[in-house]
Amino acid sequence: MIGNELFVEEFGSQSPGEHAQLVYKADQKFPVDIFQSAKSGDALGPKYFFFQLSDPKKHKWVSTPENLFLTIKPLQLISNDLLLFQGSTPTWTASYLLNLKNGKVSPLGSGSAEYIGDGHFILHGYKGYARKDRDDPLGAYWADVLVDKEGAIIKFLSKGNVCYPLRYLINTEDEHPKLVQGLDQKICVEQ
Questions:
Q1: What is the structure's pLDDT at 1?
Q2: Which of 56, 120, 127, 186 has its C-alpha lying 20 to 30 A from 171's C-alpha?
Q3: Tens-digit pLDDT string for the chain (191 aa)
Q4: pTM of the predicted structure, to 2 decimals
Q5: Which is nearest to 161 in space by CA: 138, 187, 135?
């Protein structure tokens, strides 16, 4: 999971630079401008995405790490304060919440998030790695999972072509303290 520590808050008049390209213009649905910038001025150079958060006193810029994403897509305004967005590369997608008041970014996890209400989300296409201590390690798997707004997994949703007891998919119960399922419950995943 890509954590909040990878996002950089930049305040004041700092901007993505003169070579920035507006990739999403703020509107009624999503009140944030999103820019893509090479920062160095080289169109083929490192890519950053900047979120411009409007504030009556100053503008806040929240930027992504260099080359972390190829695309950024706003998905849903959860409240006046929270924007659900996803960042993608050709091989993975991760979902995040952006606090529009303070610029903090909270990771929800891998997969494309769907807000279902009451602070809960379904991550479609969550990518996990099965236990490595088994004689026949299963490797990577994809599943749909129910998470809270901190990204803690509450429940694995059975959807897939192969089924295993949950204990084969996660290392320990301590890894997912909010999980409501027993480790012997069979979960179907895709591999």
A1: 36
A2: 120
A3: 333 344 544 434 456 666 677 777 877 777 777 777 755 444 444 466 777 766 545 556 666 656 667 777 878 888 888 888 888 877 888 898 888 877 788 889 999 999 999 999 999 999 988 876 666 667 889 999 999 999 999 999 988 889 989 988 886 666 788 999 988 999 999 98
A4: 0.78
A5: 187
Q: Output the CA–CA distances (angstroms, integers) from residue 70 to 19, 20, 85, 139, 178, in the order listed.
A: 17, 14, 14, 26, 32
Give the closest residue to 130 by CA, choosing from 86, 89, 91, 160: 160
**Which residues is 163 bridged to in the sheet?**
188
Nearest alpha-carbon partner for 65 in 95, 87, 33, 84: 87
Annotated domain spans of the chain? 1-110, 113-191
**Residue 78 has what DSSP assignment?**
-
Q: What is the rounded CA–CA span in Å between residue 111 and residue 103?
A: 22
Contacts of the segment 76-81: beta carbons below 8 A, 24+ positions apart: 76/115, 77/29, 77/30, 77/31, 78/115
Angle (CA) 60 94 6, round 5°: 45
Q: Which residues contact 37 (CB under 8 A, 6 or more apart)?
A: 16, 17, 19, 20, 21, 47, 48, 49, 50
Per DSSP, the residues of 13-51 read T--S-TT-EEEE---SS---EEEEE-SSS-TTS--EEEE
The residues, ordered by sequence, that sit 6+ positions from 67 with a Cβ below 8 Å of its Cβ are: 46, 47
